[in-house]
Design brief:
Rossmann fold; 8-stranded mixed β-sheet; globular; AB_hydrolase_fold; hydrolase activity
């Protein structure tokens, strides 16, 4: 695949410590309009993640990004990523390998979405989780204020066994809470992954489909051999590193659907 992903930097972002569920992280915020929590992927708030964040700001949202790991603004590299993964593997906050697990970081995100909803306009907030944080974002959708959860290539628990590949990345109780909201409040979930992505396995999406039914909208980008988008078999980050600002590009279409999904649920209809 040719070209490069959109990038940005920390210009204009305001960092403030936020404490919730006994955890404290800096949260970077920018923009006006309905609130969206954007949870960075491994290794953290890279220029590509900031490119997505600034795009959402430009589309009329207040974006809050918790810095859960990594150095904000630092470029991705293999040594950097491996150093972050090594730390996350042993962190009790994230429980990267645990099955059927309620993770402390999901409780932190619940507190953050409640705080953002209280400070921004609109009927509620959205949340976008990617890669390592995809399941955390969906777990936070048990909160009534979350109206637009987006789950991009969820990769936790790390898929090192068949049971972990099928695990939804949250406890059964948390998943039951999200399912209940799809029935009682009409909640819908947008999920996306690459077709050949072993880090975010199809079995995980199969579990979510069985649980959420028609309330789970799935975008699966073709990364099989010879695919039209030019993606490699190892393609993983749908909305960041694999994104290209090229008309007709599959990942661009996925990002456009994310913006549309957020607007449908967070922007009040004109009278």
């Amino acid at each position: 695949m040719t070209g490069t992903a959109p990038t940005s930097d920390l210009t204009g972002w305001r960092a403030t410590p936020f404490t919730g569920a006994g955890l404290t992280h800096d949260v970077y915020e920018k923009g006006t309009g309905p609130g969206v929590v954007l949870v960075p992927e491994i290794p953290g708030m890279t220029p590509e993640v900031l490119g997505l964040a600034d795009h959402l700001v430009d589309q009329g949202f207040t974006v809050a990004m918790p810095s859960l790991f990594g150095t904000p603004g630092k470029k991705n590299s293999t040594p950097y990523t491996l150093s972050i993964v090594a730390k996350l593997c042993v962190s009790a906050e994230f429980r990267a390998f645990a099955l059927d697990a309620r993770r402390p970081v999901a409780d932190y995100l619940r507190a953050l979405v409640r705080d953002l909803a209280a400070r921004t306009e609109g009927p509620g907030v959205g949340i976008v989780g990617m890669c390592f944080t995809g399941g955390f974002a969906l777990a936070a959708a048990g909160e009534d204020v979350v109206l637009a959860p987006v789950v991009a290539q969820p990769a936790v628990p790390f898929p090192v066994s068949a049971r972990r590949r099928a695990d939804p990345g949250m406890s059964q109780g948390e998943l039951d809470g999200v399912v209940s909201r799809t029935k009682s409040a009409g909640l819908c979930v947008l999920g996306m992954r690459f077709s050949e992505d072993a880090a975010s396995p199809r079995a995980r999406f199969d579990t979510l489909r069985r649980s959420l039914g028609d309330a789970f909208e799935v975008i699966e980008l073709d990364s099989s051999k010879g695919n039209a988008g030019g993606f490699s078999k190892g393609a993983h980050p749908v909305l960041t590193e694999e994104m290209r600002d090229t008309p007709g590009h599959p990942a661009l279409a996925a990002r456009e659907r994310v913006v549309e999904f957020l607007r449908e649920r967070l922007v009040p209809a004109a009278d």
